[in-house]
Amino acid sequence: MTTSTIPCEYFSELPIATFIITADHEVIFWSKACSQLTAVNASQVLNTRNHWGAFYDSNRPCLADIVIDENFTLLSSLYDSHNQSKLSLKGICAEGWFHNLGGNSRHVIMEAAPIMNDDGVVVAAIETIQDITHIKEKASSSPQAFPRQATNDLIPICSGCKDIRNPDGNWVSLERFFHEKSNITFSHGICPGCLKRLYPDIYDEIMKK
Description:
By secondary structure, the chain is of the alpha+beta class.
């Protein structure tokens, strides 16, 4: 099998954004879904090496390029979250926010895998891109989501009593702070270390139960 015999036209209606590049990094297939996701038409990228422009502001490898070159050491410098594909032994996947993908801010999952001929030689690579922005936004707005301030900012906390200072300058308990920020409700108990320190006389008896 050569790249010229890949029946790319069969995939044009795929519901997942998909593109294929040759071993020379030239685009030979750009699905309709890929055009819709990136706002880049197939005519703009077919038979070129300009597929990167649909995703990035400057020329850099896409996952498919990394698969072609087998230069997997680049992954850590290009993607914050990446891994081997769960469904393809030689495939890779990555995800992250793209703040101007088709004119919108999107969180996408990308997967790429090699296409090999009968001799096991890589002749092309296929990459898919799935928009999961709605899932990420739903998770971040969930009452169970960790409060944004707790993940992005420094939180002033008393080293003694562990109360937290609110933006208005008032000190509140740690439990109240997180409940007001995210609806988290704490249940209270006592750990073995504090149990032994506070109640040494009954520690052994309780721990036996």
